[in-house]
Amino acid sequence: MAGDYSRTLSGSFHGKGPSILQRLNVDMPLFLLLVGISILGLFVLYSASGQDWGMVQKQFLNYVVGFTAMIFIAQLHPKWLASWAPWLYGAGVIALVLVLLIGVGAKGAQRWLSLGFMRFQPAEIVKLAVPMMVAWYLSHKILPPKFKHIAMVMLIIFVPVLLVLKQPDLGTSILVAASGLIILFFAGLGWRWIFSAMLVLCAVAPLMWYGVMHDYQKQRVLTFLDPESDPLGSGWNIIQSKTAIGSGGLSGKGWTGGTQSQLEFLPERHTDFIIAVYCEEFGFVGVVLLLLLYASIIMRALYISSQSSDVFGRLLAGGLTITFFIYVFVNIGMVSGVLPVVGVPLPLISYGGTSVVALLSTFGVIMSVYMHKH
Amino acid sequence: MSFSITDAKEERALFKRRAIIAAVFMLVMFGALVTRMVYLQVLKYDEFITKSENNRVRLQPIAPARGLIFDRNGVLLAENLPAHSLVLIPERVPDLEATLNYLTDLVGVTPREREVFMKEATQWHRPFEPITLKQNLDEEQIARIAVNSFFLQGVDVEAELVRHYPYGQYLSHLLGYVGQISEKEQDNIDPINYKATKRIGKIGLERYYERMLHGEVGYQKAETNARGKVIRTLDRQLPVPGQNITLYLDIELQKLAMDAFNGRRGALVALDTETGGILAMVSSPSFDPNPFVTGISLDEYSSLRDSLDVPLFNRASRGQYPPGSTLKPFVALSFLENKVVDPNRVIYDHGWYQLENDERIYRDWKREGHGPVNFHQAIVQSCDTYFYEMSFKTGVDRIEPMLEQFGFGQDLSVDIWDALPALLPNKDWKKATRGLGWFPGDTLNFGIGQGFMLATPLQLATATAVLANRGKWHRPRAVEYVGSTLVEDETPHDPLILSSPEYWERVVSAMHDVISGPHGTARAISHDLKYSMAGKTGTAQVVGIRQNAKYDSKALAERNRDHALFIAFAPTDEPKIAVAVIVENGESAGATAAPIARKVIDAYLESLTKQELLNGR
Question: Could you please report the per-residue DSSP string of B159-175?
């Protein structure tokens, strides 16, 4: 029944017969939404980079690579992906161990692994490997999962999480943990478990503060709670970004007209804080439109995930969708001052090749799951 | 098989339920973000738009150029020279320690400069405000910084106008100097008007006329980026420069007078008798005021402060000396005015005087006595015995009011900020301060300018000018014009009117003979005199205006000698200039103090003649 509906839907888009994109296993609405947000991203970046045409060209190439990766991954059958899951997961964990042993980094954190010709962050691998591994593991079990299966999943999640935390990278470790736990949620984890976990989390939070968190991490939280306490130091970013957003008002100062961003009061304006540039220049109306665009992408992705008959694909696609949501929410939340500052870019708009290619690849996975649903 | 299909269906339904829950949760969270945006962009819009405008637009104050100071002939005495200083914006310097070390090698920052800079940088200061590290960069240093600017983030060279006194030590006491605004001064100035001003008048005329010299601050509204760089100027209000001031002083006369001291300790004040304007005011030795402007080093300052000759001390306005015999003409007028003496009566001086019922002998400076002296001769020869007797007859209650009318015991200067009233004693004063009655002997000492009486060179010159003008008063002052406006004395002093104008002439004629008479105490300076001069010598026993603890027998012996004083005015009948000179430990007034006065009067009268010739008369 769902299949019929979807056929009607795509039929109505493309008239008779399957289009090239359909033959390429690409979901048309999702594709159009992603292209739309990418084009918007280029416009915002042009302004946020201080009219740096070269940066826009590089980002355009990032999108080209990203969409190519997306279409390529969409061709792969979910079964293939599932069979890779343990290998990717294993490789990710080993890489994380290597980071702690021979990694390179800066400012007291060891996050990079050098391969001679390139450097990469193994944490980026486990962001994808953990949900894949959890989905793969649960797809072989009867759902909802039993206690021993839940325990196993916890092990799968928290080994890499602890390794990332050790780097130390609190933000990423929380995101990795979340990406795994969400799969568990979609697999039908009992509400009792969910609520007890939340209670435990509340109890553990103070312990984290005194035991696990580093001074600079505590500083971030303190600054988040009271940015005015250090207006020129760590509070500067958040004060300036709130000022940029607030001064945008209802309709904004106009494209490339944001004084906060153009006069460089705004830090990291083309990467993590790019949403502040957007808010300043396009105002509240622009923000609502952008959130609608993100919501549409998320809802569409969630919808197509639910259409899959393959357990692994369904769980993975659902989990990746929520992860995408978390990125959007955490980024906008931190820039607008409702969450502490953690290094999360705004999906598909912030400048950066890794982020763009990784996210579009994610959507490749989701499309693959959808197009190979039978 | 059918079991597993049901299972699969069940699992799918479970996923759908969870997906719906997740969707609702996400939409709620997006709703929260929208709420946050409503709060920031709609409810708090006014606050943030103001904040962003304040960020963007910086109101930069522009310091006004300080008014210039000229002498009576238009010679520039205080000017503003462009100077370059090395400034750092600590917020923009990535590694302060390394940058300071680099600059030390590059342009030779002294430890002292570094210390001062660090003090300022670590105290509270306006964020992103440049802080001075080194002043007065030369061309080479500026070039070195420019070449290395790539390594010097947050380092800048700033151009500003710095006060400069081309005549240096010749005018330091009168002009004073400007210096860094201190914390205490900060509380007393208009914070808006001084927003861009770094220095303020510390002493002298620079201090007294600070308000006129300073001017009014200007503003520049500029759009700046986060690093404080001006992108474009939006609006500008130019500062109003300070007013120029013109002095009565003649710099050539001042130089001549100062050089005449030849490094000796002492002071000179020369007044224009027609206006009370200060033609020259010397306190010797002096100091160069220029290092004080940019910040004098501690070593340099302590050597000035601790010098036995106290060069920082303004002897002309603050040095309090017993006037000695230079007081006699004024005391003599009290004899005449109170009709105590018959000017023609002759007394015989044996060299000493004694009061009835008092064993103490009051000696004349001339041991063997002056023999027969009348009023005229008493002044010409400075006969103490005559003054002992007449002072006793007149009494302190009649001498003191006369001296008060000449300005003794009061600060009657118009614009000399640090002038002291010195001391004019009377019975009440002695009772109040010493708890003792006034003894007849006190009157005798008073009558010859010794004892309790103290006067500053400025007061002596003023009194001499009043005498020269036969009672007409002009309060002494340095500044003639502020801008192009003649400065009027707002509280002029009443003229001193004697019961007979003839009294003036008696005293003046005696003072004339002090110089030109065969027995005059200053007859040594009378040769080749082309005009008539009236004067009076004096010696004052050293009570030590400042005895230092350091014992140096040779220096101390020299410093125990009497002070030599001399007052004079000329020409006698149409006076133009009145002068008071003191040479500390100069001993003989006629030999040390009087020649200096003559040089100054000669030069001034000659310059007046030249002026008249130039004006075609």
Answer: EEEEEE-TTGGGSHHHH
Q: Do A322 and B26 touch (CB under 8 A)?
A: yes
Question: Does residue A357 register a pLDDT over 50?
Answer: yes
- Specify whether A129 is located in the same domain as A50: no
- Residues spanned by the domain of A206: 76-213
Cα A112 to Cα A103: distance, rounded to the nearest angstrom: 5
Q: Do A245 and B40 touch (CB under 8 A)?
A: yes
Query: Tokens in use for B279?
Result: 């033609």
Is there a domain that residue A10 lies in? no
Among A181, A213, A245, residue at a domain's last position: A213
Do both A133 and A35 map to the same domain? no
Is residue A273 within 8 angstroms of chain B, CB to CB?
Answer: no
Please report the pLDDT score of residue A204 as a whole number: 82
Do A176 and A246 belong to one domain? Answer: no
Greater model confidence, A205 or B69: B69
Residues 130-159 of A with CB under 8 A from B: 142-144
CB contact under 8 A, A246 and B223: no
Mean pLDDT within B499-513:
96
Chain A residues 10-49 within an 8 A CB cutoff of chain B: none
Name the band, by pLDDT with cuts 50, 70 and 90, for residue B154. confident
Residue A19 belongs to a domain:
no
The residue ranking higher by pLDDT, B422 or B541, is B422
The average pLDDT across B232-255 equals 92
- Cβ-nearest to A265 among B14, B36, B55: B55
Give domain status of residue A205, yes or no. Answer: yes
Instruction: Check whether residue A268 and residue A332 sit in a common domain.
Output: yes
Question: What is the pTM (predicted TM-score) of this model?
Answer: 0.67
| B38 vs B49: CA distance, rounded Å | 14
Answer yes or no: do B8 and A309 touch at CB < 8 A.
yes
> Same domain for A195 and A291?
no
Which of B35, B38, B52, B223 would you mutate first to test chain A, the one with the most A CBs within 10 A?
A: B52
Strands (E), chain A: 104-106, 109-114, 119-120
A263: nearest CB among B8, B40, B226: B226
Q: Output the six-digit token pair for B369.
A: 């006595």
Instruction: Using CB atoms within 10 Å of the CB of residue B295, give its burial: 0 to 12 exposed, 13 to 18 middle, 19+ buried.
Output: middle
Write out pLDDT tens, residues B193-204: 888 888 999 999
B544 pLDDT higher than 50:
no
Interface of B with A (CB under 8 A): 7-8, 11-12, 14-16, 18-19, 22-23, 26-27, 29-30, 32-34, 36-38, 40-42, 44-45, 47-49, 51-53, 55-56, 91, 127, 223-227, 231
Tens digit of pLDDT for each residue in B333-392? 999 999 999 999 999 999 999 988 888 888 898 889 999 999 999 999 999 999 999 999
Chain mean pLDDT for chain A: 84
pLDDT, tens only, B116-139: 888 888 776 666 677 888 888 888
Reply yes or no on whether the pLDDT at A17 is more than 70: no
**Contact assignment for B22 to A186 by CB distance below 8 Å:** yes
B382 is an active site residue: no
Residues A198 and A308 in one domain: no
Domain end among A158, A191, A213: A213
* Nearest CA among A141, A120, A138, A119 for reference residue A130: A138
List the single residue in B22, B36, B127 with the smallest CB-CB distance to A336: B36
Phi-psi region of B136 (alpha: psi -120 to 50; beta: other; left: phi over 0): left
A284 contact B CB<8A: yes
Cα–Cα distance for residue pair B475/B76, rounded to 1 Å: 25
What local confidence, expressed as pLDDT, does residue A233 receive? 60
A247 & A345 share domain = yes
**Number of domains chain A contains:** 2
Task: Name the one residue in this structure whose structure tokens are 């980079």.
Answer: A49
- Is the pLDDT assigned to residue B226 strictly greater than 80? no
The verdict on residue A221 lying in a domain is no
DSSP letter for B324, please: G
Separation between Cα atoms, residue A349 and residue A352, nearest integer Å: 9
Mean pLDDT of A6-35: 69
For B198, the token pair is: 């770094």
**Residues of chain A found within 8 Å of residue B48, distances taken between Cβ atoms:** 242-243, 245-247
Tell me, what's the ipTM?
Answer: 0.89
Q: Are residues A310 and A248 in the same domain?
A: yes
